[in-house]
Specification:
Elements: E1 2-4, E2 15-22, E3 39-48, E4 51-65, E5 72-86, E6 99-101, E7 106-108, H1 109-120, H2 155-165
Parallel strand pairs: 5-6
Antiparallel strand pairs: 1-7, 2-3, 3-4, 4-5
Bound molecules: zinc ion (2 copies).
Residues 135, 137-138, 140, 147, 149 line the site of one zinc ion.
Length: 166
């Protein structure tokens, strides 16, 4: 969706609110597509002394798979939108990740919301911060208690032991 800012672009002090919903079901993170619920975004664009700033938040429920124990879980997320909208790029390096170029008088809401979303996604998905994961030997979920496997000997110690046996 495009958000027309024609009414506020030349009016310091003016503002325009927005609300949109996005379908990001095809977006892949790792090997899964966690964004099966609609993504909603809500906020306001303000003209502060000629500078256009966009603030708001992006909300959805993620369908995740734990990176450690492979258990599916859902997580409600709310990421902040904090962007600057510019009509032209002054310097090459001025366009950082929170800075978006207007197309005419319009802001490309889909691009801004998608970028905000991706930048805020955790690269690791854990069912809980202290998930113990699965035993690499027997595959038991260690959150349910310890297994009977002996810990693997440290390969460095094994090499050392072999060396002194000679
Ligand atoms: Zn887990
Ligand atoms: Zn085990």
């Amino acid at each position: 969706m495009r958000l027309s800012l024609a009414k506020i672009i030349d009016c310091p002090g003016a503002s325009a609110s927005f609300e949109t919903t996005l379908d990001l079901r095809d977006m892949e993170f790792g090997a899964i597509r966690p964004v099966q619920s609609p993504v909603s975004a809500k906020g306001i664009v303000r003209n502060t002394a000629g500078v256009l700033t966009m603030t708001g938040h992006v909300d959805t429920t993620l369908d995740c798979i734990c990176d450690r124990c492979a258990k599916p879980f859902t997580e409600d997320i709310s990421y902040p939108i904090d962007a600057v909208l510019v009509t032209e790029v002054q310097q090459e390096d001025f366009l950082d990740e929170n800075c978006f170029l207007l197309q005419g008088n319009d802001a490309d809401l889909d691009e801004i919301v998608t970028t905000t979303f991706v930048l805020n996604m955790d690269s690791k998905m854990l069912c809980r911060p202290d998930c113990k994961g699965l035993c690499p030997t027997c595959g038991k979920d260690l959150n349910d208690g310890a297994c009977d496997c002996r810990p693997e000997p440290d390969p460095r110690l094994a090499a050392l032991q072999k060396f002194f046996e000679k």
